[in-house]
Design brief:
Rossmann fold, 23% helix, 4 helices, 7 strands, alpha/beta, 137 residues
Length: 137
């Protein structure tokens, strides 16, 4: 699946791709400023998030609850120096929880990724336009 969109259409894009997500582990790829956290916020809001989404850059993982008491984990591995750091805080237990996990900068923990995940690639076309690709492995 591939969608080209303007940033002000991100809520509509989230509504379109949410039913297409087949895995609980969702990798978001794109350069800094591509809109990864913004897309996660839009997806989480469509799911029925109670909390506000913010980037977990310094905390590595944020935990959110939905109105139906579901848990969502949002990871930002940008500051992780090695996969061992992620093991130290128990990343595998989060992945094994069955709850939805959104991952930013997941290439930093590559060997720890589960076998099944979906990838949302964001490509910056210009200041207001992005191309989104949904890939399942």
């Amino acid at each position: 699946m591939e969608i080209e969109f303007c940033l002000d259409q991100i809520d509509d894009v989230a509504r379109q791709i949410l039913p297409q997500l087949k895995n609980s582990i969702i990798r978001l790829e794109g350069v800094m400023g591509a809109g990864k956290t913004t897309l996660i916020k839009a997806l989480a809001n469509k799911i029925g998030l109670v909390d506000a989404v913010s980037s977990p850059t310094f905390s590595v993982v944020n935990t959110y609850l939905t109105h139906s008491d579901e848990t969502i984990y949002h990871f930002d591995f940008y500051r992780i120096e090695s996969p061992e750091e992620a093991l130290d805080f128990g990343v595998e237990e989060y992945f094994d929880s069955g709850f939805l996990c959104f991952l930013e900068w997941s290439e930093r923990i590559g060997p720890l990724l589960p076998q099944q995940y979906s990838t949302l690639e964001l490509e910056v076309l210009n200041e207001n336009t992005r191309k989104l690709r949904l890939i399942h492995n």
